[in-house]
Amino acid sequence: MNFLKQVATYLHRAYAGDLHRFCIVFPNVRAGLFFRKYLASSTDRTPVFRSLESLMEEVSGLTQADNLSLIFDLFQAFKLHKTTGESFDDFYFWGEMLLEDFDDVDKNLTDARDLFRNVSDLKEIDAAFDYMTNDQKEVIRRFWQNFNVGAGGMLKTEFSAIWQLLYPIYETFKQRLKAKSLGYGGMIQREAVDLIREHSLCEKYVFIGFNALTRCESLFFDTLQKQNRAIFFWDYDDYYIENDWHEAGKFMRENIQKFPSEKNFHISTRNLENPAKHIEIISVPSVTGQAKLAAQLLETILTHDEDDLDLNRVAVVLPDEYLLLPVLSSLPASARDINITMGYPFTCTPANSFFERLSALQQRVRPYADGARFYHDDVIMLLHHPYIQEIIPDEANSIIKSIVEYNRIYVCAAELAKHELLQLIFMQCTNARDFSQYLLDIFSKIITIYETLNLKPETLNFKPETLNLELETCHSALQRIHDVLATDGINMELRVFSRLLRKNFASLKIPFVGEPLKGLQLMGMLETRALGFDHVIIMSMNEGIFPGKSVKQSFMPYNLRKGFGLPTTEQRDSISAYHFYRLIQRSTDIRLIYNSAATDHNTGEMSRFLSQLIYEPIFNAQQRNTTFSVNHERAKPIVKERTDDVRRILNMYLSETDDRKWLSPSAINNYLDCRLKFYFRYIEGLKEKDEVTDEVDYSVFGKLLHRTMEQIYKPYLNTEITPEILTKLQYNKQSIQDALYRAFAKDYFYTEHVADSDITGRNIIIREVLLKYIMRILEVDKNIAPFTILSLEKRLNVSVPINNEGYSTHINMSGFVDRIDQTHNGLRIIDYKTGNAQRSFSGIADLFDRNKTGNHAVMQTLLYACMVSILRESRVGEGLPSSELYIMKNLFKDDFDPRINISRKPPINNYFDVADEFEKELNQLLSEMFLSDVPFTQTENSKRCQNCAYVNICRR
Q: Which helix (H) or strand (E) covers residue 798, if one does?
């Protein structure tokens, strides 16, 4: 029989006729629900049920205030005594710590005046603290002796100044709260202790299943005991009670001696030593792997004992609440009835993620003369949120498309106001109160829209009841915070207010709807207090998770806490130990799972409690390791044959119809790199996803240079350019910068005009580098002048003849040539290169050999020369064409020469010197591409796959 049922049976037997005059008190509400069930089966005389927290509120006449109200009230008290003008922003980060310290002071009935005394004369200690033991006084003496040694540094001085103010702050703070009939946990307990003598709610109080008591709770119990109004029932095992070294029994040993149970109550207290107890410790090398393993264990339990299994005697305990979702999604189908006691963390809901995105939006907004502008990432993240995608998908996706298409880094509010909800979202908040109202308005609007839209459940990403709960929970919390802000008149930075909201939301839970006394119990560790189960699965049994990290931030130094008997690390560890051992003491089947994988947040170390089970002789704990079998199969080669559909697309490059396709030099280079890459890009039409670029990347850098040079030389098109003209251009730096800014406007910002203020961050460096390159190009051109520019960024469309085994046809080839000059030596075909290009190559045949490195830049400029030579009859220019590369990284060399050359040979001045060999190789390549049956296969050179856009498809 479990503990609660035994207590219920005893109370019914001993006090059946008087139970309606009793108040039965538990450490938590959950235990009371189970106890009520057991008692109801024996009697209809119903007692009063309370948790100790609610009972103390009732006795004290004070209501527990929420943390937000407490921190604001504490700040008001702080300002009355610390008049140096600290803002709430400065106060908040240590004000939270002070709240916890005051709570400890009151719960442990510490004399706050003595605690916050600055002891400069050590002789005061014996006189002032005569109620303490010698050991306590020695600890306090040691602290002040060490603190007062040596010169007083700035930190010591500041600590002393604040320390002396803490008692007046503490008193003022409590007075403010009491005037409003509010309190914090410790204050309520202290008040209840003073008033319990006169409290007459019930004739007797029955306290069941408690462990660690604060001094207030202990005195509360003691007062009722002396009035013969208290009955106590303790749940423990002799193993940790009789062994003084065992931390699980630290508090219980004191409790059962000071507040003994009734003599007639007998309960088994030797359960941990039961040889039939099955304990298994299992390691799993992942977080979600624990959830999968727990599901397998549950399936075994449920199917093995299917006939006589009481599901509410099976518990899955989650010390880490963030495992709740993985566990829920992994539960076996046989677990039909589930009772979730923990509540779903609000931080895991879409409502919380929506708040986070709104917060990020407001913290990066920029004010402009024409209104607020919002950062593109924040805008896109918000518009992708499920709420927005369900309410206004068309408007949201239209805005996203426009931002990406035009590379909008910061977007004007006016451009985003395409719906009344978006009008509310995309406005700037300047302070916390504005932001509070802003959030309230947005969540109110979303609630209203969902109510009026009456969307069908199957069209929603969430269940309607869940959606309503999370939105209403969020709205209620925001309304409370807004009311507090308005009442106390406190303002703060948005950053601090967001952190305050985040902390508040972290404590919110969305309750699950269900029958609490029916089905599999899915619980947090604290909900297990006083409850017992036959089958227990405890997850996340890792050091640092259970027990959790014991370090607690406090304004009070450790020695003072210890000297005044305030809680320390050791006590918190003992509480965790009791929860663990008490939970498993009556269970017959115990599975303990821990994550063995070391990560940033987990050491992979098993809990110390597991080590104790392994090494303590009374336990027979079995261990096993669960590992993942990872079979890394080599990716299968991908081969695309030339089907009728593929040939139809390829034939469009041979066609002269309106829907014909044009082959670019880049496409030829892609085919040489990898036939399959060409297939994906030009046959299937798979393109890389467009994204907004915050800073100028390599491709945009090249566009800016090309566009600026076009702007600079455009007025001189078909005009002879002399050294004098180029010198004037160099001196007119403002004109050059204007041309560069026009390029920024067109190719980066996609706007009509760009000012100095728009070029920010790393882009300032990009601007200066571009200006340096441009000036150097003008200097290089001055050394070649005079020349006449025949075309700038001109598209050439050429029909290139090919022959294959007697069959002749033409390929549609097209490309943009950066610049074509006419000089006294002939034509110069110029290509600007901002990347890692080389003008030297090993030979024409090697350019077409896909097994060799190749040279894309040389291939491209030779293809342009070939195309120009075909068009010579169309009066593109006179003279022999020469292919030249303006490679930016080589531009500043004294011996800079733009002409291409075969390794260790003179530069090629005339395309026709290599034309025969080049066009022969080109003919063979184009024939293979368009007239052969060669399939599209992957390259053998895996290095080419590293930066390929299709690497995830090929799984290389």
A: strand 787-804
User: Does residue 269 sit within a domain?
Assistant: no
Together in a domain, 221 and 145: no
Token pair belonging to 633 = 């199969």
Q: What is the DSSP string of 398-467?
A: HHHHHHHHTT-SEEEHHHH-SSHHHHHHSS---SHHHHHHHHHHHHHHHHHHHHHH---GGGSSS-HHHH
What distance in Å separates the CA atoms of residue 256 and residue 238, rounded to the nearest whole number?
12
Residue-wise pLDDT tens digits, 298-329: 998 888 766 667 788 899 999 988 888 899 88
Number of domains forming the structure of the chain: 5
Is residue 651 in some structural domain?
Answer: no
542, 567: one domain: yes
pLDDT higher than threshold 70 for residue 465: no
CA angle 345, 546, 521 (to 5 degrees): 55
- How far is the C-alpha of 722 from the C-alpha of 716, rounded, in Å? 11
Q: What is residue 551's three-state secondary structure?
A: coil
Per residue in 557-610, pLDDT tens?
877 788 888 887 778 889 999 999 999 999 999 999 999 988 767 778 999 999
Does residue 52 sit in the same domain as residue 139? no
Q: What is the rounded CA–CA span in Å between residue 811 and residue 81?
A: 87
Task: Report the alpha-carbon distance of residue 162 to residue 86 in Å, rounded.
Answer: 12
Cα separation, 230 vs 227, in Å, equals 8
- Considering the domain architecture, whether residues 620 and 539 belong to the same structural domain is answered as yes
Could you tell me the sign of the dihedral formed by the alpha carbons of 864, 870, 876, 882, in that order?
positive
pLDDT in tens, 8-44: 999 999 998 889 899 999 998 888 888 988 888 766 6
**Which residues are CB-contacts of 624 (< 8 A; sequence separation ≥ 6)?**
280, 281, 282, 283
**How far apart are the C-alpha atoms of 740 and 59, rounded to whole Å?**
77
Alpha-carbon radius of gyration of the chain: 39
| 8 A C-beta contact, residue 896 and residue 780 | yes
Q: Which of 510, 540, 555 is the last residue of a domain?
A: 510
The domain that contains 226 carries what CATH number?
A: 3.40.50.300
Enumerate the β-bridge partners of residue 594: 283
Residues 6+ apart with CB under 8 A from 828: 787, 819, 820, 821, 822, 881, 882, 884
pLDDT at 799: 92
- Residue 712 and residue 787 in one domain: yes
- d(C-alpha 798, C-alpha 818), whole Å: 16
Please, are residues 214 and 53 in contact by the beta-carbon 8 Å criterion? no
Alpha carbons within 13 angstroms on the beta-carbon side of residue 888 total 17
Is residue 635 in a domain?
Answer: no
Q: Quote the CA–CA distance of 250 and 582 in Å, as a whole number.
A: 13
Cβ atoms of residues 520 and 337 within 8 Å: yes
Burial of 383 per CB tally in 10 Å (0-12, 13-18, 19+): buried
Task: Count other C-beta atoms under 10 Å from residue 706's C-beta.
Answer: 20
Residue 72: phi, psi to the nearest 5? -70, -40
b (16+ CB within 10 A) / e for 304-330: eeeeeeebbbbbbbbbbbebbebbeeb
Length of the chain: 956
Phi/psi for 625 (5° steps) reads -110, 130
Quick one: tokens of 259? Answer: 């507040």
**Measured torsion, CA atoms of residues 303, 307, 309, 312, in degrees rounded to the nearest 10:** 100
Q: Are residues 519 and 532 in the same domain?
A: yes
Q: Which of 346, 502, 533 is nearest to 435 (CA)?
A: 502
Query: Do 222 and 205 form a contact (C-beta atoms < 8 A)?
Result: no
Q: Is there a contact between 18 and 46 (Cβ–Cβ < 8 Å)?
A: no
Q: Are residues 55 and 70 in the same domain?
A: no
pTM value? 0.76
Contact (CB, 8 A) for 247 and 574:
yes
Give the tokens for residue 892: 């500043």
- Cβ 482 vs Cβ 444: under 8 Å: no
Are 739 and 712 spatial neighbours (Cβ–Cβ below 8 Å)? Answer: yes
Is the domain of 38 the same as that of 151?
no
